[in-house]
TrEMBL record:
This is Efflux RND transporter periplasmic adaptor subunit. GO terms for molecular function: efflux transmembrane transporter activity. GO terms for cellular component: efflux pump complex. NCBIfam families: RND_mfp. It comes from Marivibrio halodurans. Residues 361-381 are annotated as: Disordered. InterPro entries: Beta-barrel_RND_2 (IPR058792), MdtA-like_BSH (IPR058625), MdtA-like_C (IPR058627), RND_pump_MFP (IPR006143). The keyword Coiled coil applies. The keyword Transport applies. Residues 214-286 form the CusB-like beta-barrel domain. Keywords: Coiled coil, Transport.
């Protein structure tokens, strides 16, 4: 037999076998021996998946509070911060501080040459003493008629003028000393002894950094949910492993019409003096939200009419339920749409779902706990 004829015979036999195997009549299949008879380990009616139920894995619906985290970046500044300038001009005679010194309010920081002012005060004190002695002598003499009442009045006026000149001399002398305006930390000195300064000469920066103020921007949509004293968390890049706790201390009275944000100020305690003015901070504020139903993200499907899930009804059948997706959080979707806590939804086997199909639950997966909240804001996480 030629090779062509052999190939033709093989092809015909293959087609014949394929046709016999796909015969739909069970009785005919038993007759020709391609299906065992019922009662001999076979079945006259094949078992379909719907008869036993479509195998699926389900997960319970849980209720989760839809908290939000506002995140923003802000800059820190000292609780009080000034640049020190002298009250008067002159030659620097002493610089009484080192950069980084913690000083108390009123402590002397710098002195100018005050020899002339000291002499002026000494002269004023002498004038006061002489005027007082003259007034006392005139008061004794007026009793004997040696001096008139008008002379006593003149002596009193002279004493008053001398006392005012003394006070002026004391102020002029005090102005030659620069003192700390409040408790704080002083920066690097910009002058040295011997320098000549004016009232425009910068001496040093001075900060009260017992706590830092951090200003940042919050979207106007959250304005009504902000309040004074509300807790905040902050991180700074120089202390990346530390979470700093603070509170909102001020909320601006206006919303920026361009950025649609409102300026918020938080106060961060700095008892250990590890924070510095000018640092950048990543600020987070937890905003409590409503409770919502949460389902596995893979259980949510999308169709022409929107998002939907397959819920297991009371009879163990598939029920198609349209939902509204509100947010996503770590593999779960927070939704609206008629689900209750304890309902079960299909999240494995969804490809074979159709309305009313009987389900065979092969496994139930408990959801992992959700820690943290969904982010929303204007800064990095």
């Amino acid at each position: 037999m030629s090779i062509v004829r052999q190939l033709l015979v093989i092809g015909v036999l293959a087609l014949l076998g394929y046709g016999l195997w796909n015969i739909d009549d069970p009785a005919l299949r038993q007759m020709i021996g391609v299906e065992p008879p019922a009662g001999n380990g076979g079945s006259a009616t094949p078992i379909t998946p719907e008869a036993e139920g479509v195998p699926v894995v389900v997960a319970p619906v849980v209720r989760v509070r839809a908290d939000t985290v506002i995140e923003a970046v802000g800059s820190g500044r000292a609780q009080q911060s000034v640049t020190l300038y002298p009250q008067v001009g002159g030659e620097v005679s002493e610089v009484l501080f080192e950069a980084g010194d913690h000083v108390e309010a009123g402590a002397p920081l710098m002195r100018l040459d005050d020899r002339r002012e000291q002499l002026a005060l000494d002269l004023a004190l002498v004038a006061v003493r002489d005027a007082r002695q003259t007034l006392e002598r005139f008061k004794r003499a007026v009793r004997t008629g040696a001096v008139s009442e008008s002379e006593v009045d003149t002596a009193q006026t002279t004493l008053d003028r001398a006392e005012l000149e003394r006070d002026q001399a004391e102020v002029a002398l005090e102005d030659r000393t620069l003192r700390a305006p409040f408790d704080g930390v002083i920066g690097i000195a910009q002058v040295e002894p011997g320098d000549r300064v004016t009232t425009d000469t910068e001496i040093a920066s001075f900060d009260d950094r017992s706590s830092l103020l951090v200003d940042f921007e919050v979207p106007e949509g959250f304005l009504t949910r902000l309040s004074l004293g509300q807790p905040v968390r902050a991180r700074t890049w120089s202390l990346a492993d530390q979470v700093l706790a603070g509170k909102i201390s001020a909320i601006d009275a206006r919303v920026d019409s361009v950025s649609r944000t409102v300026r918020v100020r938080a106060r961060l305690p700095n008892d250990e003096d590890i924070l510095r003015p000018g640092m950048a901070f990543a600020v987070s504020i937890d905003m409590a939200g409503e409770e919502r139903a949460a389902v596995p993200e893979v259980a949510v499907l999308w169709g022409r009419d929107g998002a939907y899930i397959w819920r297991v009804d009371a009879e163990g059948r598939a029920e198609k339920l349209f939902i509204t997706v509100k947010s996503r959080r770590r593999g779960r979707v927070l939704i609206e749409g008629g689900l209750r806590a304890g309902d079960e939804v299909v999240f494995e086997g969804v490809q074979r779902m159709r309305e009313g199909v009987k389900l065979s639950i092969t496994d139930r997966r408990e959801p992992a706990p959700l820690d943290g909240t969904a982010g929303a804001g204007s800064g990095p996480s």
